[in-house]
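Title: Comparing notes on inverse folding

I've been comparing how different people in this forum approach sequence design from structure. To keep things fair, I'm posting one structure and asking everyone to reply with a full sequence. Here's the target:
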């Protein structure tokens, strides 16, 4: 890893319940996990309660959303705005997770507008990007990733990555138990940093790039040794306190 402060983020997806929130709020005290940042993104219905519980339990956890609307307010049934997230002390939001892109049709431009809305409301966006298995076979990995990043640069400028986080999540590794090897991940992370450096070297050196895709307590340490891997975005293994704690402690 570079000198950037490691960050481990949890994406619970549509899993978890009030009992898991209570368990996480009390387990990740600052004495157990220090020197790293931890963000947990539960389903949005639990954000308010989770925020209150981490605040009253001396927890190291910061609370994040899995998604947000690109609009500020209005007639958008079922959506949640950045201002609403702010009101419940949720200061991070995942944007462009591959499930949102594939199941809900989110395009690079739409994701870039969510990224912009998050930043405009002082919410740190975690931009997910990654290739499918077919795209990797077709040697399109770097093209796909550059497209996602360029959409953000076009919309918000390179400086917007001073206040954002990137997560490289190969689609073929998400929820499959088949993580990218540390070398495969490092290759892509290095590409992302170089791509950003074409616009601004300082921004490129300062942005945290997380790896996501079947990270667990056994493979985390090797991934975290890679120069350009600054942490992880964890799905399945983030639903079990002991597993997620082990990943955090490896960072
Ligand atoms: C994810 O959904 O962001 C993810 C990385 O999932 P998993 O860790 O289960 O592969």
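Reply #1:
Here's my take.
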């Amino acid at each position: 890893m570079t000198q950037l402060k490691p960050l481990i983020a949890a994406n619970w997806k549509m899993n978890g319940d009030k009992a898991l929130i209570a368990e996480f709020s009390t387990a990740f005290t600052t004495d157990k996990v220090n020197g790293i940042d931890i963000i947990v993104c539960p389903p949005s219905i639990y954000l308010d309660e989770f925020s209150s519980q981490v605040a009253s339990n001396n927890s190291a956890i910061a609370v994040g959303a899995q998604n947000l609307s690109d609009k500020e307010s209005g007639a958008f049934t079922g959506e949640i705005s950045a201002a609403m997230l702010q009101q419940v002390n949720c200061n991070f939001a995942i944007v462009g997770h591959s499930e949102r892109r594939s199941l809900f049709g989110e395009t690079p431009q739409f994701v870039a507008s969510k990224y912009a809305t998050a930043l405009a409301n002082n919410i740190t966006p975690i931009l997910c990007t990654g290739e499918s298995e077919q795209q990797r076979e077709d040697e399109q990995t770097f093209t796909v990733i550059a497209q996602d990043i360029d959409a953000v640069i076009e919309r918000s400028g390179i400086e917007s990555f001073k206040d954002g986080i990137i997560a490289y999540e190969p689609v073929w590794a998400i929820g499959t138990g088949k993580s990218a090897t540390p070398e495969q991940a490092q290759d892509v992370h290095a590409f992302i940093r170089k791509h950003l450096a074409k616009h601004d070297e300082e921004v490129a050196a300062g942005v945290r790039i997380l790896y996501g895709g079947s990270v667990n307590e056994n493979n985390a340490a090797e991934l975290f040794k890679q120069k350009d891997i600054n942490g992880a975005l964890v799905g399945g293994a983030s639903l079990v306190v002991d597993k997620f704690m082990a990943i955090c402690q490896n960072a």
